[in-house]
Specification:
The chain has 94 residues and is mainly α. It has one domain. A two-stranded antiparallel ribbon has the order 1-2. It starts with 5 loop residues before the first strand and ends with a helix.
């Protein structure tokens, strides 16, 4: 079980590769990359997808980024900041 999760709009519990499973699901069934995408956290998203053990199979970061965009009053701004990282993800993995 992965303990990396959203704790409020736009904020995660904090990504730590030494204690979180890069490919594991949390209590809510979200993969780490999905948590970072929904939060709009560019640094954590980039750290996760750059991890040598990251596996994109089954990950839905674009969908969760959209959920974060529409569910947060500041979602459009965080989505704009995350968009280049999502584009790079798409080019690399899809």
């Amino acid at each position: 079980m992965n303990h990396y999760q959203l704790i409020t709009h736009g904020q995660t519990s904090g990504w730590d590769a030494s204690t979180n499973d890069v490919n594991g699901k949390n209590f809510y069934g979200m993969l780490s990359v999905e948590v970072a995408a929904q939060a709009g956290d560019v640094d954590e998203f980039t750290a996760i997808v750059s991890h040598p053990e990251f596996n994109p199979l089954g990950a839905r970061p674009h969908m969760f980024a959209e959920v974060g965009r529409i569910s947060d009053g500041y979602g459009d701004a965080s989505f704009k900041r995350l968009e280049p990282a999502l584009d790079a993800y798409k080019a690399r993995f899809l």
